[in-house]
Every structure is written in C-alpha cells, then in structure tokens.
C-alpha cells in the first residue's frame, strides 16, 4: 500500500466542506455535544427574555390600542390573552430544554419555539382583521415575521436547519397574506423584500457562527499534523466513555501504538519525512476502525486507540490487522527518494471489573514495553506476569487515576 505525499487523514479538513455546513450528519459526536451546550444556553436565555417582553408589551398594546376607536376592548383582551399564552409556551419549552442534553431535542425545541411564534402571529392577524395599514399602530403586528426571523440570528445552525426554521416563518407569512386578501401594494412589497434580505443575512450569520465554532473546536481538539484527537481531547473522550461502559458492565479496550525506531526516520530523512510517516500512519489506522472508536496522538510517535464494546479477542485481531497494514505501508516522501517502510509495536489490555482508567492505560503500556523488548513489529496482550514500571516519570497515566 502506497501513501502518496499529498494524502491526508480523514479527519484533516481545516477548510470545512460544504456538506458539513449543510448537515450535522458528518459532525463528530464530541462537536455535537459542544454545539448542544452552546445552543441550549442561548435558547433558554432567548425564551425567558422573549416571554418577559411579551408580558410587558400587553401594557403597551392596551395604551396604544385603547386610544384608537378602531380596535374593540374585546380584541385588546384577546391580544393580551394570546401574548400571555405565547409567553407561557416559551417558558414551558425553555423548562423542558433545561432537562435535556440532546442536540436533537434542542433542535426540536427550536422548531417548537418558531411554530409557537408563528401561531401567535397568525392568531393576532385574525383578531386584528389582518392589519396592513402602515399608518395604524396595529401594523406593528404585521412586522412580527421580521422579528421571528431576526431572533434566529443568534444560533449557530447548519444550512438545512436554518432553511427549515426560516421556511416556517415565510410560509406562515404567505398564508396570512393570502387569507387577508389584500392587494400587493408598495408597502407590502417593501416589507417582503426586507424580510427576504433579512432572512438571507440571518442564514449567513448562522453559518458563519457554525463555521467559526467548528474551526475553533478543531484547533482545540485535533492534532494539527495528523488530524486525530490531541492528547487532551483523546483522554477526555476516552475516560467519559470508559466510565459509561463500566457502569453498563460492557468491555472496553485500550491499545497503545508506538512507531518503531521513529527517531531514526527523523535523523536520517529529516522531520518532513517524519511528518509524512505520522500522517500516513494515522490515515491507515483511521481506515480500519469504527466510528465510535476513539483514536488520538498521545505524544510524539505514540498513539492510543480506545475500543468501546470490544472484547479482548476482537481487539487483538484489530491490533494485528493494524500491524500488518503498517508493515505493508509505503510512504512517499519526495521524488528521487525511496518510499519509506515502517513498523509499529502495540500493547493492549481489555479492562477488568476492578480496573480504573489509569490502571487500564498502565497495563496497556506494560504490554507495549513487552512488545518492543521482544523485537518490535508485533502485538502483546497484558498478563499478570509482566512487570509494571514503578518509575513515576514513565507513568503519565497516574493523573487519570480515580
């Protein structure tokens, strides 16, 4: 297997693809968790502030509309009831969102908020007999769709999510205009044009926020050379998943992988060649693991692969496939230079019921040392007969002890 000099691992996409901005389906689970927390905070704040504004606006409506003989007291009362119901619905949705950490449920809540806002707009249009007289205070209700569009600008959404939410408001606006039966005069043309331009600007704002968050997330969580998880994110994700599996009494395996004699590659061929080897190796591993596996660079030429729900036997088979694939790998480091061939040593351990996270890592590390001392280019599984290092400088796993 030849790895071309220009090839890149699957996770290295510093220039975000259009597909990632269109849909969340290609987003990493850890990024979805990050965006969920971001959306949740903004959504709850918006619901509370919007509900408070609606309740305060009841007094403004009463003052403005009661002085106009064209609006009956019954209509004013109905508007107050509708505003109260809308405010209560916003607070109820915000309360439900507070109980969840699911990105999908928060997006459903966003849709419910938009639907509630448009039902309020539709209901008030009937109460006020479809207000389109721009010289009358009630015309402010015809501006509600514009507000419904603008408030969405604070959320980092994908293009498909944005279109769905904006579409609800625009469809409701069309239905109100149709039911009202008014002619399309210059005032309405200007209003609809403003709404269309605002919708485009809001969609652009949402995509820009999403793009920025994704770039910051990748810079903070991925190794810039190989595109796999950096040490901090690797261990955070793995420890969380390990604890979840332990509570569910499911297997969890750790595989420590070390590139054999990597220093020699740097000394003989230069750091550029070393970088190409690291990239090629990361790409080779990623092409042979599951989506739910957690793979990252721990430091230098040492990588760790965590395999949730994976038995010791299956983990050993995966490790052997990786060793074989790397052995067959040829790395192109430039014209006129022979392709490089490298090997790896792997130590693995599947957690027992009494193992904590640091113990899992330490036993895998012990297996790796055994693989290297036995000639490299092989897989070793931990056994109780293997000696465990007592040198704390060589035991970075201690910080993860529970």
TrEMBL record:
Ranges annotated as spanning the membrane = 43-63, 75-94, 106-128, 190-207
Q: What Enzyme Commission number does this protein have? A: 2.7.7.65
**Ranges in coiled-coil conformation:** none
Q: What class of enzyme is it?
A: transferase
**Keyword check for Nucleus:** no
Query: What SMART domains would the database entry show?
Result: GGDEF
**Which top-rank group of organisms is this from?**
Bacteria
Q: What is this protein called?
A: diguanylate cyclase
Its taxonomic path starts at: Bacteria, Pseudomonadati, Pseudomonadota, Gammaproteobacteria, Vibrionales
